[in-house]
Design goal:
The complex is a heterodimer of chains A (about 200) and B (about 200). Helices cover about 55% and strands about 10% of the residues of chain A. Chain A is α+β, with helices and mostly antiparallel strands and about 200 residues long. Chain A has a four-stranded antiparallel β-sheet. A two-stranded antiparallel sheet of chain A has the order 1-2. In chain A, a hairpin with a 6-residue loop joins strand 1 and strand 2. In chain A, helix 4 packs across helix 5. Chain A is elongated and about 70 Å long. In chain B, helix 1 runs antiparallel to helix 3, helix 1 packs antiparallel against helix 6 and helix 2 packs antiparallel against helix 3. The chains are: A alpha+beta (about 200), B alpha+beta (about 200). At the A-B interface, helix 1, strand 1, helix 3, helix 4 and helix 5 of A face strand 1, strand 5, strand 6, helix 2 and helix 3 of B.
Chain lengths: ~200, ~200
């Protein structure tokens, strides 16, 4: 990156956050996009504050999401409580290690990685760090892409809870862990959406 | 069409090339794809959306999976998975599941058809621009492909102690997933606005 790049900000242009139309002289407050009628902002409004708030909430809920049982299985022989991790172990012991690895990555690694990576991105955008911007930008795009796969366990649990309601044989009841886990996934998805990638590039341009 | 376009990811200004791009172009600074190939016609998008709505009907009308154990059997449909949670008084999760596997995909396809069919016959849908904005907002909340993988995980866990039979809806869901992703790839927000720009104002 040499010299000053011609950005929308330096040229007095902005692009609509919704439809990407390039707009000149949109200085008036509460102006709307002439094409899609979305309200115009140079950057996503309150991006860093919102992302931080959502991330803190997600990080707090990540603890009960992993410690509390996501489902309780009741059979005539015994009652079992499964957390996300013990669910992974059940899959591993039943011999399907590819599925176990998939659930482990989607439910435990991805949410944690997402919270940590977004925290790093938010901090570096706030500090205006100039190094490795391309890598950070690409990291953000990876997060955008993989984040949705964490919902996998929610769907698996909801199907199990619906199907396994056999009278006097077995029943599955959804636990509080599943609620916390669902909240973590939705909060991190929202945090990714509120983060504005352009903030990574704004400093020194 | 303005001559300057800004990269949506890093705000760098680019001169828009007067010739239509037939390949994907990327931002020179942050490598974000800027212009998509323009070889999609509105007909293809409508065909995919129509196909998706048929598959969506099948996916919801037939059972998703059936389970047989000890002479008893149970089956569920796609919406049944959300209703099962609702009956267990886990309403928040039930609403989340219902919105992401039923409402969002349905709304996505319906709004696309609502905008594209009038454009195809050279008209303009009422509230078109607002609806296009809605499409781009709804798209990230449609989780059909993730749901499918979740179903596979659930089936693997059940297969240990019950006989599970995949139903018509499961296979419809597989096709629906392919159809939806093909449809989404061809109807990016930029592509939609391009079709709008060509039609009557």
């Amino acid at each position: 990156m040499t010299g000053r790049a011609a950005t929308g900000r330096s040229l007095g242009l902005l692009s609509c956050l919704d439809c990407h139309l390039t707009i000149r002289d949109a200085k008036a407050p509460h102006m709307r996009c002439p094409r899609c009628h979305a309200s115009l902002h140079e950057r996503k409004p309150h991006s860093l504050g919102l992302t931080t708030a959502l991330l803190i909430l997600a990080a707090v809920l990540y603890v009960p999401a992993n410690l509390l049982p996501v489902m309780d299985t009741n059979t005539p022989f015994d009652d079992e409580s499964d957390t996300i991790m013990s669910g992974v172990l059940v899959l591993l012991h039943s011999g399907s290690w590819p599925i176990a690895a998939l659930v482990f990555i989607a439910s435990i690694v991805v949410p944690l990685l997402k919270i940590l990576a977004l925290a790093v991105l938010t901090y570096s955008a706030w500090a205006g760090s100039p190094s490795g911007r391309l890598q950070r930008s690409q990291l953000y795009r990876v997060l955008e892409y993989i984040g949705r796969w964490s919902m996998l366990d929610i769907y698996a649990i909801s199907l199990l809870a619906t199907l396994v309601q056999v009278q006097s044989f077995a029943s599955v009841i959804v636990g509080w862990g599943a609620w916390a886990f669902g909240a973590v996934v939705v909060l991190t998805l929202l945090a990714t959406q509120t983060f504005d990638e352009r903030l990574l590039w704004d400093a020194h341009t | 069409m303005p001559l300057v376009m800004l990269c949506p990811a890093c705000d760098l200004a680019h001169r828009r090339s007067p010739a239509p791009a037939f390949a994907r172009t990327r931002c020179v600074r942050c490598r974000k794809p800027l212009q998509v190939a323009r070889n999609t016609t509105i007909d293809t998008a409508i065909a995919l959306a129509a196909c998706a709505s048929v598959l969506m009907f099948l996916a919801n009308a037939y059972p998703l999976v059936a389970m047989h154990v000890n002479g008893a059997s149970r089956q569920t449909t796609l919406i049944g998975a959300a209703l099962g949670l609702y009956e267990q008084h886990d309403k928040t999760l039930a609403v989340l599941v219902f919105l992401t596997i039923f409402v969002a995909p349905l709304l996505h396809v319906a709004t696309l058809l609502y905008v594209l069919v009038p454009l195809w016959i050279g008209r303009r849908a009422y509230g078109q621009n607002f609806v296009i904005r809605l499409i781009t907002r709804v798209r990230p909340w449609s989780f059909t492909e993730v749901f499918l993988l979740g179903t596979v995980v659930a089936l693997v866990r059940l297969a240990k102690f019950a006989h599970v039979v995949p139903g018509v809806a499961l296979w419809s869901c597989v096709l629906l997933m392919l159809c939806l992703s093909a449809m989404s790839n061809r109807t990016s927000s930029d592509q939609l606005w391009q079709w709008v720009g060509r039609g009557p104002r």
